[in-house]
Amino acid sequence: MSTAVITGTSRGLGRTLAERLLAEGWTVHGFSRSSGELTHPRFTAHAVDISDEGAVRAAVAQISEPIDLLVNNAGAASLNAMLLTPGAVAAALMRVNYLGAFHCLQSVGKAMVRQRRGLVINITTVAVPLSLEGEAAYVASKAALDALTKVAAAELAHQGVRVIGLGFGPLTTGLTRAVPAFKLAELDARLGRPQGTSLPQAVDFIIQHLSDASSATGTISYLARL
Question: Which CATH number do you get for residue 131?
Answer without folding.
Answer: 3.40.50.720
